[in-house]
Sequence to fold (247 residues):
Amino acid sequence: MDFTNKNVVITGGTTGIGLATAKAFISAGANVWITGRNAANLEKATTEINNPKLFTVISDTSKIDDIAILEKAVAESGNKLDVLFLNAGIATFEPIANVTEANFDAQFNTNVKGHFFTLQKLLPHLADGAAVVFTSSTVATAANSGSSVYAATKGALNKIAQIAANELAERKIRVNIVSPGPILTPGLEGAVPEEAKGYLAGATALQRIGDPDEVAKTVLFLASDAASFITGTELVVDGGYLNYALK
Ligand SMILES: NC(=O)c1ccc[n+]([C@@H]2O[C@H](COP(=O)([O-])OP(=O)(O)OC[C@H]3O[C@@H](n4cnc5c(N)ncnc54)[C@H](OP(=O)(O)O)[C@@H]3O)[C@@H](O)[C@H]2O)c1
Fold:
């Protein structure tokens, strides 16, 4: 897929799915801005990608002031954005009885409020005909014990994406959702215990955990002209996880 000189913003682009997607867009010729909260992670990603078409912005998506920093960086670049990949996310798994207000707020502020206001603030910088992709999750469809808050954030995000697809259609901006199942990333490794990985692999039809590159390829597809008649939809990348539970 060719994204030569297209301008792409990826929130949460320093590790896992975001980093894999940044690499894929760079390989396809795009200029890519990645964000993250942590300067060291951004530096590590810069070293790993090692390409002058990569730009970094320290921006915590859960904070409105930090979203303004990202907006300023995009405005100062003088470019209109062709692709916005709203991917930053955090997850904590625990029973409802144990959830604290701080934990609830942290997940909603990052996974929902952050994406909503990043989209809102970057709307004037999106080119007509641009593509927006939200990272949701199969948890929004499943009802796994321990996932109440995280799953609720992704359910909310899906609805925001569907409505954004309708509101932005007049500018020919397509908005879609990529919903990964279990993907081997630092985020997954931090959120689930080691022994759960075997269970997660066995819960997919393909009997394995996915690779971040497999999600990245899907994001590039959704952002490309190959998906020109696709908007407001969710593309599940889960090795058959959701279906397999029904067998
Ligand atoms: N891995 C899976 O199995 C899986 C499955 C379904 C959905 N997802 C979703 O996929 C997305 C990426 O997850 P991942 O598995 O690739 O996790 P990851 O390796 O932990 O990557 C998360 C990225 O988001 C950044 N980030 C986290 N909080 C942020 C914030 N407040 N502001 C800005 N950046 C922030 C992190 O950088 P810093 O820490 O440096 O800020 C990092 O770049 C998330 O939305 C997650 O919910 C993952």
